[in-house]
Amino acid sequence: MRLMKTLVCAIAFLPVSGMAADQPGRTPYTNFVLRCAGCHGFEGAGTPEGGIPAFPNSVGYIAGTERGRTYMMHVPGVVGASLSDREIAEVMNYILDVWGSIDSAPLAAKFTEAEVTRRRAVEVADVVAYRRLVVDELTEMGVTIAEYPWP
Predict the structure, then answer these.
(1) Which segment of the chain is annotated as a signal peptide (predicted)?
(2) Which of 47, 66, 77, 81 has its CA 20 to 30 A from that of 124?
């Protein structure tokens, strides 16, 4: 029981999203493994049956639009990551470095800590509906991205 109370108290004092303390010694890859790979996998393939989109041939296009960059800051894994905005920028840039290029050409600019802070402050009430707007915009540009089974 004492352990349970200690854990509850510790959880109560965890940093709030966007105000998380940096984790010294953690690389962007380490944070990717700890915060993203559980859903997206180590290869960024996601799980379409689980509703998790793949990164290859998609994430660079998504990050290449204003709306897409804001969307990326509001996906559940980012919102609940308990990483600082600097660490989120680093993880996003790791993802873009690995999966955000076509024929070695980057499709989007790197994220900065200031941009992450600004975009996380934008209210996105329904991330699924917001993603549909991103997909519609990319479709108009002639770009098809990874499947996303949510209605």
Answers:
(1) 1-20
(2) 47
Q: Please state which CATH number belongs to domain 17-140.
A: 1.10.760.10
Indicate the length of the chain as a whole number.
151
Q: Are 63 and 108 in contact (CB under 8 A)?
A: yes
Query: Residue 3 pLDDT more than 50?
Result: no
Work out the burial of residue 2: count CB atoms within 10 Å of its CB; fewer than 13 is exposed, 13-18 middle, 19 or more buried: exposed
Instruction: Give the 3-state DSSP-derived string for 3-60, with helices as H, strands as E and coil as C.
Output: HHHHHHHHHHCCCCCCCCCCCCCCCHHHHHHHHCHHHHCCCCCCEHHHCECCCCCCHH
**25 band by pLDDT with thresholds 50, 70 and 90:** confident
Q: How do residues 79-106 score in pLDDT, each as one tens digit?
A: 988 999 999 999 999 999 999 998 878 8
* pTM for the full predicted model: 0.81
**Phi and psi torsions of 28, nearest 5°:** -55, -40
C-alpha to C-alpha distance for 4 and 34, rounded to whole angstroms? 23
Q: What is the mean pLDDT of residues 18-28?
A: 67
Q: What CA–CA distance (Å, rounded) separates 40 from 10?
A: 28
